[in-house]
Design goal:
Blueprint: E1 4-8, H1 13-28, E2 32-40, H2 52-74, E3 80-87, H3 89-100, E4 104-108, H4 122-130, E5 135-138, E6 149-151
Parallel strand pairs: 1-2, 1-4, 2-3, 4-5
Antiparallel strand pairs: 5-6
Amino acid sequence: MYTDVLLATDGSGTAREATDHAIALATAHDATLHAVYVVETRTAYDNAIVDPETVRENLRREGEAATEAVRSAAGPDLEVVTAIRTGVPHEELLAYVQEAGIDLVVMGSTGRSTMKTVLLGSTAAAVVEDVEVPVVLVGEADSTDAEPTVSDG
């Protein structure tokens, strides 16, 4: 049913929970798992204390760690493609869905963003609103929304 599963990861608790679901789904369908991390470009650094390039490089390293953690968790029998993109997270994820022919998206319901909507992370909400494939949203295990929620895109 699914041949390419996208896991949007940012290293957050919900992303780690979503990883387990994405691996299970990709394994069950003998699909390729795409672990994608997006380095956010909308964050403003308006003081001389924080060097924007240093922050971007730190986020890139964080992305490498997050995507490699997915590869490790998946084990040797599951094909895993990793990607680190730079831009607005939901826009980059939507573009990746189109470019890679993704037919299922798995992601945490909220992430690391400090600007969250009340019920759903802003990236997750934007992806669900605009993507044309099914989406599985996973909440953190210790939250009341621990069960995955499925959207038909």
